[in-house]
UniProtKB/TrEMBL annotation:
Residues 134-224 bind DNA. Residues 6-119 form the Response regulatory domain. Residues 134-224 form the OmpR/PhoB-type domain. GO terms for biological process: regulation of DNA-templated transcription. It comes from Rhizobium rosettiformans. GO terms for cellular component: cytosol; protein-DNA complex. This is Two-component system OmpR family response regulator. PANTHER family: DNA-BINDING DUAL TRANSCRIPTIONAL REGULATOR OMPR, REGULATOR OF RPOS. GO terms for molecular function: phosphorelay response regulator activity; transcription cis-regulatory region binding.
Amino acid sequence: MDASAEILIVDDDSQILILMAKFLRANGFRAHTARNGIEMAETLKRVSVDLIVLDLMLPGKNGLEICRELRRISSVPIIMLTAKGDETDRIIGLEVGADDYLPKPFNPRELLARIGAVLRRTRGAASPAVDRGGRNFSFAGWSLDTMKRELTAPSGVVVDLSTGEYDLLLAFLEAPQRVLSREFLLDAAPNRAIDVQVSRLRRKLDGREDLIQTVQNAGYLFATGVVRD
């Protein structure tokens, strides 16, 4: 495990906070805790965190509202904790920007595994594109800087991407005008809801379904040319 990783746990159950923080610290992480959105915001002013474990059911602003607000200003990875079997909340969580989800109750070792997987994707996603010949991709007036992990719209506005959205876009840009299966995309951007991730990415690209086209019974096609700088 990466002992330098700073993890923020946000949950209104004090016992769960104590247990999760103790478990993560025992496994090499630096764990911080908050019981609601206000305490989370105060912690984020003091600490630059690498990942947030965010409970859905919180007093005041719930986890979905907090996740949506965070995504407007940050691409920090978020793992959402949801009620067991509540598929609607899980899908909404992914749509508003969560990178992964975990239903309660859960085995702490599964949380540990998911944190490790999300951090590996976050910290390692940019290097393959650089190794294969360039820092920047340009397409249809858009540009992606893989060193900064920044997507810039034709208007010049920087569009914030979650870890999953970034990984998915990078997979498309490295194989433009080719049909990519859902299985391939699942390997490139591990997530149990690729269709949801594609929908979110399309919205970030101004809703342009002509850029990412659905190929029935086959997968998805990034349908425009890509220039690698």
